[in-house]
Amino acid sequence: MSNFGEDVMAANKLGKRIIKIFIVISFAILLPFMQCKDKITHSDTNEPTCPGIIGQWQFLGLENETITSIAIHPNDERIIYAGSRYDFSAGHMGKLFRSTDCGKNWDTLIVGQPLFSFLDIVIDPIHPETVYAIPLPVLKSTNGGKTWFDISNGIRIDWETRAGSIAIDPYNHNILYVGTSGFFGGSFYKSNDGGENWIDISHNSLRDGVISIAIDPKNSNIIYAGTPWRGILWKTTNAGETWFRTGLGETSQMINDILIHPLNTKIIYAAISQIGVWKTEDGGNSWFQYNEGVTDSIKSAMNLMMRRNCSELFAIYSIPDTPGWMIWDIGGIYKKDINNKPWFKIGINNLRSYYYSDIELSVNENILYFGSKGLYYLKLK
């Protein structure tokens, strides 16, 4: 009898272990999908999130503007900033807009001067009333966009060299980086005091100019900088004191965007003109094309965005209106699921201006915003 009792106890223990293993495996399988589920409230309020129909693109307005930059308030997704493009042929000035009600109504914050296209907008994640915007110089607001002042002192900007990208150190928000570019090159600048003073940290390496910046979210000494013209992706591991080329080499195409995987920072994606998205899994040493499923004959990747909780990847691709012409005005928005299947198109049909465009996610990652001829958004599952 005692042996029978011991056998029953052993069987029970084995059964419990199997159940635990099953639960762990099931949780691991379901976790990405659970994390991607829509959240219904803000992190700091009881207000509902912006409304929308899941899986259906909706128009938010600004139909007379070509939206080139988007930023979402880190604590309140109802607050949206959108910058537009200057159009020389139409005599249209670039503008900066702000909405506090999910895009139902818009306030015009800035009407630019000639050549002012708003290429980048960044909100300080710790002090979100501090906002940076790049039309031609670098502008800063400390009151949520009510007033602005120029912080470009020390940055070389002239009729053909302008600022185009800005980034904030995730661990010290007084540290800023700005890239400039133009027909004759550009530089890479760093500020340690919130933009009051700038130093050039190009060190003769980034003299082609810098049009894209990415800072490692786990180690802010590691920075990637993408250039136009020769199309080189540079890397520093000491916050810009020295630079070296990644294994991507000289692509001869513009490095339009850089995205670092937030959970595994060895994985980096680069959106490149004419040759699409490239990926590295070893911190930039070796790269491979990542365009499976994008069937357009010329794959010019413009923007990248990742849904952190489940690693869903979004990209904007642009192709010429007419073969042989360098007017990259049509294209599409593509998505790649966590199962690493090919890209598939989720964009809006019959839209133009995918070259001058932007995509952004809400803080809850339940809304994807797309700037084109006007501003659109897609409620995600």
What topology emerges from the helices and strands here?
Blueprint: H1 2-35, E1 57-72, E2 80-84, E3 95-99, E4 107-111, E5 120-123, E6 131-134, E7 139-141, E8 149-150, E9 161-168, E10 176-182, E11 188-191, E12 199-200, E13 212-215, E14 223-226, E15 232-236, E16 244-250, E17 255-260, E18 268-272, E19 276-280, E20 288-289, E21 300-307, E22 312-319, E23 330-336, E24 344-345, E25 358-361, E26 367-379
Antiparallel strand pairs: 1-2, 1-26, 2-3, 3-4, 5-6, 6-7, 7-8, 9-10, 10-11, 11-12, 13-14, 14-15, 15-16, 17-18, 18-19, 19-20, 21-22, 22-23, 23-24, 25-26
Q: Describe it for me?
A:
The structure is a single chain. The chain is mainly beta. The chain has 2 domains: 1-35; 46-379, YVTN repeat-like/Quinoprotein amine dehydrogenase (Methylamine Dehydrogenase, Chain H, 7 Propeller). It has 1 helix and 26 strands. It has one helix at residues 2-35; strands at 57-72, 80-84, 95-99, 107-111, 120-123, 131-134, 139-141, 149-150, 161-168, 176-182, 188-191, 199-200, 212-215, 223-226, 232-236, 244-250, 255-260, 268-272, 276-280, 288-289, 300-307, 312-319, 330-336, 344-345, 358-361, 367-379. It has a 6-stranded antiparallel sheet with strand order 4-3-2-1-26-25, with no helix packed on it. A 4-stranded antiparallel sheet has the order 5-6-7-8, with no helix packed on it. Residues 1-35 and 37-46 have low confidence and may be disordered.
